[in-house]
Amino acid sequence: MLSIYDIDRVNAFCRQNRISDHPLKRLRIAFFKKGLPIEDCLEVLPEEHRAAVAGQIRMQYLHIVERHDSKRDGATKLVFQTADRQAVEAVILRITSGRTSLCISSQVGCGVDCAFCASGRGGLTRNLTADEMLDQVALAMRLLRSEGRVVRNVVVMGTGEPLHNEEALFQALETLRDPRGFYLSDRHLMVSTAGLSEAMLRFVERFPSVRLALSLHSARQEVREQIMPTAKFQTLEKLREIFPKVGKHNNFMIEYLLLKGINDGPEDLAALIDYLRGIPAHINLIQFNPHPGTAFQPVSKAAREAFGDVLRKAGFKVTLRYSLGDDIAAACGQLAGRRGKYESLVKLES
Q1: The whole model's pTM is what?
Q2: Please, are residues 98 and 152 in contact by the beta-carbon 8 Å criterion?
Q3: Contact predicate 140/146, CB 8 Å
């Protein structure tokens, strides 16, 4: 079957079946823009074409099997089930300003195994397909429709290292940006990486206006190796060499997770200022969100604010990011996924 997300092949199918551009456009608006249920999407087609489209174009790859709503903030964690019964997590973030963001996953599990992150504890199971990545967006949009909300921002910061799944990631980004697809602007998309230098260069060459965030977390090589095993191969020196290229479009972000007694000292701050000197990067200071089995501790709010003040005085743009959904294990670093396959298919959504 064809995928609804393979826009060019769907176009060719419609031409072959003499489905004109106008009903095809209405189908896409219903699916990608309005977030209508699949049955309602098919209803916008002439009756004589509905069976052919339903039989030849697949319009769903995941099913929502769990929903967890925060009692503290506007976060909702969705757990999806794939066709092979793997669990995939995404998080809806309802910002107080009224905007709605969606954090999606790129893999089942993660092979990077950062010491502070729950996502890598069980290792990598497999990559997600582009269809599975995009279906997280489509299903979240369908759920939010009843609230009168739409997904405005999509960040690929859930479970997995996106640049370890480069081909599917790039395919998904193209559909997210395509006017015939979700039609999100580049500034409303962001991808976070642990730092794969060659893949980062390919990313900025293909998507120069899409925001790229580097999980740095330390500008001291020995400390970064301690908390991020990939740092042994993707060294600070190697990453620093590509900064002029990845930062030239002014949409480069540095993520720095403050860990008490690990990377929050004056020597860490001095090293960070020196390392980023001359780079037009926006620094995101992130609070650590505890999860079962971790020995790390967050710094105090006052310490995080003081850290940020010094960076601002050094000339950097700094944001103190407050994670949503920590009471439902949906905050930054807490997504761990349900280990093992579901025994059977269970659907939560209608």
Answers
A1: 0.92
A2: no
A3: no
Both tokens of 242, joined, read: 């590509």
Q: How far apart are CA 183 and CA 191, in angstroms?
A: 17
Query: How far, in Å, CA of 192 to CA of 252, rounded?
Result: 10
Write down the residue that tokens 């059977």 correspond to. Answer: 344
Helix (H) / strand (E) containing 252? strand 252-258
Q: Active-site residues: which are they?
A: 89, 332
Q: Decide the pairing of beta strands 189-193 and 153-156.
A: parallel
pLDDT in tens, 95-150: 877 899 999 999 999 999 899 988 877 899 999 999 999 999 999 999 999 999 99
Burial, 72: exposed, middle or buried (Cβ in 10 Å; 0-12, 13-18, 19+)? exposed
Q: 63-328: which CATH architecture?
A: Alpha-Beta Barrel (3.20)
The residues spanned by each domain of the chain are: 2-58, 63-328
Residue 166: DSSP 8-state: H
For residue 22, which phi and psi values (nearest 5 degrees)? -65, -50
Sign of CA dihedral 164, 170, 172, 177: positive
User: What confidence score (pLDDT) does residue 350 get?
Assistant: 45
Residue (of 239, 199, 198) closest to 218 by Cα position: 239
> Which residues sit opposite 75 in a β-bridge?
93
Is 39 in a helix, a strand, or coil?
A: helix
Question: How far are the Cα atoms of 31, 79, 143, 306 from residue 147, in angstroms, in the given order?
Answer: 17, 19, 8, 38
Evaluate whether 130 touches 175 at the Cβ level (below 8 Å). yes
Phi (first) and psi of residue 186, to 5 degrees: -55, -35
